[in-house]
Amino acid sequence: MITAVFFLVNPLFAQDSATVREAPYQNKILFLPALGTTPETGFIFGAVIVPQFKPAGAGPETRSSSLFFSGIYTTKNQILLSLLSDIILSEEEWVFNGNYFTNYFPNSYWGIGPVTTDSDEINVLFTQVHIEQTALKKVRRGLFTGPFLRWSKVFNLSYEETDGNELPVPDDRGANGSVSTGIGWMGRWDLRDSNMTPTHNHFVEFSFLANPSVLGSTDPYTSFLFDARKYIQMNRNGWSVLAFQGLFRSVSGSPPFLDMSELGGAMIGRGYYAGRYRDLNAAQIQSELRQNLLGRLGFTVFGALGEVWNRYEDFNLSSVKWSAGAGLRFNVNKDDPTNIRIDFGLGRGTSGFYIQFGEAF
Fold first, then answer.
1. Any bridge partners for residue 71, and if so which?
2. What are the residues whose beta carbons fall under 8 Å from the beta carbon of 22, sequence distance 6 or more?
3. What percent helix, strand, coil does the chain show, rounded to 5?
4. N or C: which terminus of the chain has fewer CB atoms within 10 Å of its end residue's CB?
């Protein structure tokens, strides 16, 4: 599937010499070793291929598109094959975002709720196949809307204590495996100057997804997601950027535990293991100062607050989780800035070290 998609979009790189002379943007393919780390994976080994391009005839009003192919093996014996696609057609009339992956992913699980303890940790081993695709039509400049589809299958689940002793299957929904087939609708207001490394304007997105049993979902549920981001350029050359994000997700129905709302990870709540806390609802905010130092090198400082809860009457400010940290940035594409980031985050009794491709948000 990944190869087929690559050859499907590869003709977009074909431009005659006249077009190249007229367009200042130069298509580029980045070949990078996948060397990194997160708390969820340990050290990462593999390869990444990132074509960054514009379709023939696209001008400066069209942001660049990108594909992110990766094949990864980790020191926690995880195998991850994925394709992330962000395709923007000429004059941004259509935007297509895709997320395709298959994983064998031994992971940690602490149960459900905002007050689980470190002693609750167990290991869950599973295989997952995931397909997600959006097709958004431009309504006016920066405003897009359209449908999206999601299909996910989780199977071959088993559970262990942290020392490797086998455990019985827990009572949580989806613990024996699950299939989720969803259809939804998305709205997006996106005026960022870049999808990979934004420096000003904003991004606002909301989506609704239904996973009914009639479509084959084993544990039917609906979800609502709201994601708002603001970027403030502190000087004219974009060397100093102040960024903010608010993220809210609410789930109703009977979701499998792996589809519940989560806190933590490499994108928001850095310092907390992804899914360290999970429940029906999650709200998180974060801010980040990004500062260029010299040439391609920069640094950042960041902070975040977040919480998960079941019923709204159960929400308790006293258990809100905080995190803070700092990191370095190195731009691997001077013509279309794209950063490798190295971050260290701290939280309540926890920490995380991350080496990732692209900004957190």
1. 47, 81
2. none
3. 10, 55, 35
4. N
- Report helix, strand or coil for 207: strand
Question: Are residues 290 and 329 in contact, defined by beta-carbon separation less than 8 angstroms?
Answer: yes
* Mean pLDDT of all residues belonging to the chain: 90
- CA-to-CA dists, residue 27 to 51, 87, 200, angstroms: 8, 13, 23
Residue bearing tokens 């923007």: 88
pLDDT tens digit string along 141-185? 999 999 999 999 999 999 999 988 999 999 999 999 999 999 999
Domains, the chain, ordered by start:
86-357 (2.40.160.50)
107-109 and 94-104 beta bridge pairing: unpaired
pLDDT value at position 356? Answer: 87
Residue 112's contacts (CB-CB under 8 Å, 6 or more residues apart) are 172, 257, 260, 278, 279, 310
The model's pTM: 0.85
Which amino acid, one-letter code, is at 102? T
CA distance 90 to 14: 15
Q: Which residue type, as a one-letter code, is found at position 85?
A: S
- Numbers of helices and strands, H then E, in the chain: 2, 21
